[in-house]
Structure formats: C-alpha cells, structure tokens
Amino acid sequence: MSEIKDKIKSALGNKYEIREMIAEGGMGQIYLGVHQSLGKKVAIKIIHQVLSKDTDLKERFYREAKLAAKLDHSGIIDIYDFGSEDDFDYLIMQYIEGITLKDKIEQEGKTELRECLRLMTEVADALAYAHGSGVVHRDIKPANIMIDKQQNVIITDFGISKDLDNSDKSLTGTGMVIGSPLYMSPEQITGGALDGRSDIYSLGIVFYEMVTGRHPFEDKEGIAIYHAHVNEVPPRPAGVPSQVGDIIMKMIEKSPEERYHDGHEILSDLRKYRGQLPRDPKNIDDDITQPVPSRSSNGDTVRGDVSPLPGKGLKKWIIPAGALVLVCILAVAGVMLYPLFKKDMTVSKVPPPVTTTVTTIAPQPPSQPEPTVAANEHPVIPVKPVPLPEPPEPPSFDSVVKKVRELGKKK
Q: Are strands 294-295 and 162-163 parallel, antiparallel or unpaired?
C-alpha cells in the first residue's frame, strides 16, 4: 500500500498528500488525496499495475477523462487532470462525500416517492445535458450515481461512455458487449446503434428499482437477464401512482422509438406530476421544481431552463399588495381633503362653564353680637355645563371621490 502511495506522489510531483484508499474495482483503485497548498480534497483513480499494459483498458481510462472533462454540469463529476508516469496511469477528479444510490437502496429498500422523484429529476437533467453535448454514458446504474451530503445527485464513471461526435468503435468491437447486465438496454445487448435513449432505458430500470425496492428482473441470472431485457416486459411497478408507473414503463420500452426521445421529455413529465403533489410542509421550496444548475465555462452557475410551476408563489402576493396600495392612497386622500370638508361644517362654540362668586363676611370683633347668618351671604348653586356636540365623522370614500371631482371641475 505504501509503495503505491509513493508512486502516486512521485507521479503527481508531490503536489498531493495521499491518504486512504476509498474504493476499488476490477479496473483499478481510488485514493483520497489532499492538495498540499490548497487543502482541497480530490479522488485519485489509478489503473491496477497488472493491467497497465492493456492498451484497450488504458484507452478506456483516458476516454473517461476526456469525455467527462468536456461536460460542465453540477450533476456530472468533475475531472481535474490525468496523465501517465512510467506506465503509472492516473486520473484526478472531484471528491464526493456521500453514498451511492446503490448503498441507499440496499440500506432503505424502496425510496419515498417525493424523494425518488426529486432524485430522478436531477439525474434526468444531467443526462439531458450529457446527451445534448454528444455523450452517451452507457453504464447508468445505482453504483454510478452518487448522492452527496447536501443530497445532490452526481453521475460518475464515464469509463465506457460513447462520444456521438466520434465514429471510433474501438471499444465496441464485434461480439463485444459493454455495460452492466442488470441495467443494459436491449440495443446494447444485441449490438445495435446507441444514442441517449439507451441511457433512458437504464435509468428507467433504476427508477423501477427505487420505487419498488426490487429490480424488475431480480429473479433472473446469467444469460436469462439478457433475454429478459430484450424480450420480457416486466409487470408495472406495484404500489405507485399510475402516472409514475406510466413514466417508468415508457422509459423501459423495448424499442428505442417507443421511449422518451431525450431527458427533456422525462423532465417535463416528472415536473408535471410533481406539480400535482400536495405541498410538503417540511420543504419551503416545494412550490418550485428546478433542475440542477449547470456551470458555465467561467465557473458561474447557470440555471438553464428553470421551470417554476405556473402561478405558484406569485399569485398569492398580487392581491394583498394591490389592496395595500389602495388603502394607502385612500388614507392619503382622506388626510389631504379633510380640511376642505372641515370648512363646510359649522361647529357651535361651547361657552365656558358658569360659576358664581360667593363673598363671605370676615368675622367681627366680639364687642357686637354676631347674627346667626350673614346678611349678604348667598348659597353656591352648581351650574350644569353645556353638552358638547358629537365630533364630525371622517369623510366617506364616496364623499372623497365627489370632492376630488368638484376640485377637478374648479380647475
């Protein structure tokens, strides 16, 4: 292990710290690397040394690098660099922290419908972009679909992908079947011409497996799997809405002409159905269905054909906003016109409360006897205040309009 790490470091010019092996397959191994200066994590894929002399495998290895590198979409793995040093071939690519869809299905069984539709929408969007760029993946399966920690979907492993702009058939010689048997399209098995509809078939099998928790041909083995893909129509997925079943069955039609023609058609039907689902209270963004954004050549995020559900989000604000503006206009008009109405209203002045002045006689010296009651003493008589008139009511809306019209005529 340490010998391989040393070779990787040497081949990469000691730019990366090589950590543990994170994956291994029949073709090679993948190690976690960290850029010494930037601290950025990467995945470093290498070919097994015993296979490094195999020219076909090496061609497949570099095909993955070149085709994936020409695709610039957040749902497709990034390729940073590739090369060879003393027959040591390497590929440096995006490191994804997460799990494969294969792991998810094995751990959870069937996927909750709303989550399944979201994941399928993201994969279909990435495939639509790849096909539009002239690339057919040819190995769509749960193990090649990653789900990162933010629950975003990323398609990986373009090792056997096909460039539709290049007629080179070196990896598809006579009698050579390339792909994963459980997910291969009928035309892959029979050696027919391939285009994006082959990937759509494979994705349909993945979709079926997600919503049911089982592969449509799980009881088949060996050559029987190939026969089933070419000749047998699986039963409709049980326990799913009819619209979802229709989408899946159209994706896995035996004839490419009967399937969806491209990923955009799948996206359209998926979004239509998602728009009919009741709003998920746990997800504040559930009103809007958007594809995964692609990245432009300068690194900026490009939304592409974002399709919010019609009428959602906007309508519910138009009426309250209009009502608020009307209320504000009426309030301002009322304040401005109120003095004009006040001039026409006569309000009687209220006299101040009346009081009587009572004069008391100072006590006389004891030389003369005091009368019992002073001659000029008067009792205090309370006077009721004059009642205030009711305050004038503010002008009504009709009176405001009438006054505005009168002012307009005067001008």
A: unpaired
Return the SS3 of 35: strand
Q: What is the mean pLDDT of residues 101-124?
A: 95
Give the Cα separation of 158 and 155 in Å (integer).
9
Residue 118 to residue 185: CA distance in whole angstroms: 24
Q: How does strand 294-295 pair with strand 301-302?
A: antiparallel
- 14 contact partners, CB below 8 Å, separation of at least 6: 36
Residues contacting 407, CB < 8 A, separation 6+: 340
Q: What is the pTM of this model?
A: 0.66
How many CB atoms lie under 10 A from the CB of residue 231? 9
Q: Compute the distance between CA of residue 199 and CA of residue 153 in angstroms, rounded to an integer.
A: 16
Complete DSSP assignment for 116-181: HHHHHHHHHHHHHHHHHTTEE-S---GGGEEEETT--EEE---TT-EETT----TTS-TT---S-G
- Closest by alpha carbon to 127, among 93, 160, 158? 158
pLDDT per position as a tens digit, 299-358: 443 333 433 333 434 444 444 455 454 544 555 555 554 554 444 444 444 444 444 444
Confidence grade of residue 170 (pLDDT, cut at 50, 70, 90)? very low
Query: What distance in Å separates the CA atoms of residue 400 and residue 330, rounded to the nearest whole number?
Result: 9
How far is C-alpha 155 from the chain's CA centre?
17
Angle between helices 196-212 and 242-251 (to 10 degrees): 140
List all residues 6 or more positions away from 98 whose beta carbon is below 8 Å from its beta carbon.
Answer: 146, 147, 148, 149
In 3D space, the residue among 128, 149, 146 whose CA is nearest the CA of residue 137 turns out to be 128
Contact 82, 62 (CB under 8 A): yes
Domains observed in the chain: 1-95 (3.30.200.20), 97-312 (1.10.510.10), 314-342+394-411 (no CATH)
Would you state the torsion angle of the CA atoms of residues 264, 73, 151, 196, taken in this order, to the nearest 10 degrees? 40
End-to-end CA distance of the chain: 96
Q: Comparing C-alpha atoms, which of 36, 30, 33, 9 is closest to residue 19?
A: 33
pLDDT above 60 for 178 = yes
List, by residue number, the catalytic residues: 139
Q: Which residues of 14-41 are buried (b: 16+ CB within 10 A; e: fewer)?
A: eebebeeeeeeeebbbbbbbeeeeeeeb
Percent of the chain at pLDDT > 70 equals 63
